[in-house]
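Quick one: structure for this chain?
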Amino acid sequence: MKTLRIVNGLVVDGTGRPAFNGEVVIEGDRISAVEPAQPLVDPPPDAVDAAGCVVSPGFIDAHSHSDAYLVLEPDAPSKLSQGVTTEVNGQCGGSVAPRYGEARLSGDWATLLGERLVWRSLAEYRTALSAARPSINTVQFIGHNTLRSSVIGYAGVRATSDSLKAMQNLLARELDDGAWGLTTGLIYQPGKYADSAEVVALARTVAEKGGFYATHMRSEGDRILEAIDEVVDLVRATGIRAEISHLKTSGWRNWHKIDAVLDRIASAVDAGLLLGSDRYPFCAAGTDLDIVLPDWAQEGAAPAECARLADPAIRSRIVAEIDASGRDWQTVRIGGTWSELTRPMSGRTIAEIAGSPEDLGLPAGMSPGELVCRILEADRCLTGGFFFGMSEANMRRILACPWIVPGSDASLRAPWGPLGKDHPHPRAYGTMPSFFRLLTGRDTFADGSSAEGSRLDFSLEEAVARMTSVPARRFCIQGRGVLERGAFADIAIWRPEQFRNASTYDRPHAFCTGMCKVFVNGALAYSDGEFTHAGTGRFLAPQR
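Got it. Here's what it folds into:
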């Protein structure tokens, strides 16, 4: 068995204990020793010299969407380059499996995967993933939207007792085949049509098998307090361990609710409920642009939306309702696009485009509603969007909570190949450095700008624990998130002062700086800007 020594580094073991100058020894895929050691002036040639660097556990992205793209781009460049060695995937109600009945993967996944999309069940996905040989580990959840569309389809109806039973049976099978639990996206199709009783019944199926629950709640804005109450009630009713996804207070008129939001969650945690949350360190959300369509126009998802836009009378109604919504279009920026017409719009706001549509060959005098419909029509309703509606002060308060862990809410990306043509949110490349810098007071805001306001002042050890052992414990990921004898050798070697996000909303495809080397299950997967194609990542099945 091959032995590898990492020497001369500042060991931050992920537990929160004080850092120390030390040595980490890897044998095979495990850590065989972690011990204090004096710096070596002349390290042996077969050792990894970590002089001037922190040696820590690999980071855990607690909320990710890379399920499908791990098959397409198994090196996971945007994640591995920031020290992520494990992702928690299948979030917000959307997952790669199961795919039965009317169930469809999100449009970008299906389009880019093409002939690689060969699975229906989670077991079949695991086979495809194993063949792709990913370079990071994945924890896989089952999405409620995917599950529901497999059984009921996309119609705006409540589940019958028979269809609910069918969902429970299918969910139980996927849990037995390695799924970690259930996620919901209760603002998306078709999950938004599920009542609380349906979600509780499915969560109870998961709880009976020792699984977990994560939710993109029914509201993150006007009805956020009611949405939190729904989650807390579910946890009380089922005893399940739960995660509130990407906690935020959306829309300026809801910013003042931050005290009540944090009090509700903290009270539940203090009462012994197994509840936590994750957050990305940016103040713009990222999702599909079709979320701005009226609710009735979203039913049936992209194919049905496209059909409605093709009908002049229905389209006029959609335009009128969008224009009457009162949305601030300076806060909505175009992300990923899929056509020659829309590609020049990436990174620009709807207000900006509507102000000078002639620059893009569009007719003058277009209203925002007309422009949105034109964009969605050209992109077959697959356009991405960035929505700027969060408070930076509230973000700092959320990050300060001990039950918050980093979650990018992003699929992996790469500056090359099919994924390089997209225009992702900068959180895909920069969540971990931005989270670290905000938590330790190195930056006031996620974009690095300076402004008055209270800085967070967590120690290096506390910040690393939040990025490693805390999410590992939260999701019961055994043997990861710490540097200790017997743990899996997922290790990041990095320079804290240089660990910075370089990705922006205008130029998102940029790797962060400061990450030197990353080991996954004992193999070197990333080294000074180079990807080694180690392929040692694993599908992590829960130990129940």
